[in-house]
Design brief:
Elements (H helix, E strand, L loop, with lengths): L2 H9 L29 H14 L3 H12 L4
Helix pairs in contact: 2-3
Length: about 70
């Protein structure tokens, strides 16, 4: 199918999901990059305490706080 035909179907509100190969779909700019950060024990304990209070993992809490500080929407 040509791109113009796919665009027409999409613009008409048709579901074109079955026409796409989603197995290779990627969200640009959200690829993960592993980094290592050393924290003092007291800081890890406070992070864990706050993570438990909010019902999230330590990693999620750190990501959330960094995103807020970096003003990422």
């Amino acid at each position: 199918m040509k791109t113009s035909k796919l665009d027409e179907k999409f613009d008409a509100g048709e579901d074109v999901t079955d026409l796409l190969d989603l197995s290779r779909a990627r969200r640009p700019g959200v690829e993960a990059k592993r980094v290592n950060v050393d924290f003092p024990i007291w800081m890890v304990q406070r992070l864990d305490q706050e993570a438990r209070r909010l019902g999230v993992t330590r990693q999620s809490l750190i990501k959330l706080w960094l995103a807020e500080k970096l003003d990422v929407s």
